Amino acid sequence: MKITWVLINCNSRGEADRIGSVLLLKRNVACYDIILRSKAAYFWPPRSGKIETAKGALLIAVTLPSLASKLVPLITKLHSDKLPFIGKLRIEVTSEYARWVQGELKK
């Protein structure tokens, strides 16, 4: 069976925890993890040639494939960036784990 990890780059651990908590309390995700990022580098503003660096946190929110896309508008609303990174990975897991995830989500 498959679940989906929704990956969200956040500007701080606090932002990741705030977004993760909202998703969890709304039962849109079964759980979430936060991994601190020591450095991110990217061009900003776009096409400027100027390299920006930042720290932050990666929020991994666990949900079902059928719900993952529905989370994007809420995450975008809660996120401090105008253009946040939100990615989705489908992952094969044991059927027991998938049933637990399904049981924790709002029907």
What does this protein look like?
The protein is built from 3 helices and 4 strands. With 107 residues, the chain is of the alpha+beta class. The chain has helices at residues 13-25, 65-78, 95-104, and strands spanning 2-10, 31-43, 51-63, 86-92. The two termini are 18 Å apart. A 4-stranded antiparallel sheet has the order 2-3-1-4. The model has no long low-confidence stretch (mean pLDDT 96). Strand 2 and strand 3 form a beta hairpin.
Break the fold down into its secondary structure elements and pairings:
Layout: E1 2-10, H1 13-25, E2 31-43, E3 51-63, H2 65-78, E4 86-92, H3 95-104
Antiparallel strand pairs: 1-3, 1-4, 2-3
Give me a quick take on this structure:
This protein is an alpha+beta fold and 107 residues long. The chain contains three helices and four strands.
